[in-house]
Amino acid sequence: MAQAYDHGGGVRSIRVPIPDNPLGHTLVHVLDTDAGPILIDTGWDDPASWTTLTEGLTARGTSVAEIHGVVVTHHHPDHHGLSGRVRESSGAWIAMHPADTAVVRRTREAPPERWFSYMAGKLTAAGAPESHVAPLRKAPGHRTLPGLTPALPDREIVPGELLDLPGRRLRAVWTPGHTPGHVCLHLDEEHPGRLPGNGRLFSGDHLLPGITPHIGLYEDPDDTTLTDPLGDYLDSLERVGRLAPAEILPAHQHPFTDAPARVADLLAHHAARLTGLLALLTTPLTPWQLAERMTWNRPWPAIPHSSRTIAVSEAESHLRRLVKLGRAEAVPGSDPVTYVAV
Ligand SMILES: [Zn+2]
Ligand SMILES: [Zn+2]
What's the whole-model pTM score? Predict the structure, then answer.
């Protein structure tokens, strides 16, 4: 049974399941426009997810063939996975921020071995033991699972400009951090329930009621720029807090209000985490050693291989921030590199 919710004012959402994932579902939002409905995100590319999406549309008197366009908050497969299939079934355009389109293009074009050797090199440089790196060298092909080739968008999202949607005022707010091209979509119209505040915000993975989104590094084999994704994320949080939307419609969990309070919680969480890391960095540590000592949702020995890789990238994004703030620095000549509080 497809679960669709009507939020009023021509906005509905469909809970599209994510197979074998603790997040459970993606909330695909449907926005009516004078040119036909558009989707904000589409869900994971899986037969059951597709059925839920199409049945959810039918249950509300629309069909997937009528979809006019797809606006993607970011390139992750639980958001962008079904975009290609929606386009094939409807002729809809797909819009994405250029920084995430670049990631999609790279994923489509680079041979999987390139990615695995890049990650193996990065992890070794971060101090990962050979036992962690070796499986990456042996397992090329993971990223070319059938159905997981992301669709190339055909429109570019320009932050700050109204999207070309007849009858609606929808504007992208660039919120890099979780990914380099993550956007929130601000529906700059009065709230249908007259909740006080500034319209409604489709927040993707940027602002969720009960989850802190993963902030790692923007892994890009072709880019040697020292980016600061955690710094980007914290800036993006403040931007969304200042917008003060009346209601937030995230891509997971459930809608909520009081964005400034949630933003304050997340800023405090990251401030406390950075302080905790500084206490650990009284002795020099590699990013891997730091990840081992950080607090996760389970003890380090119980964390599976793929999640350890993600944990190390999260440790590195925090180190980047501390270095940028002048609170930590790399120990000259250390190999693999270690960092120490200053
Ligand atoms: Zn995501
Ligand atoms: Zn997500």
Answer: 0.94
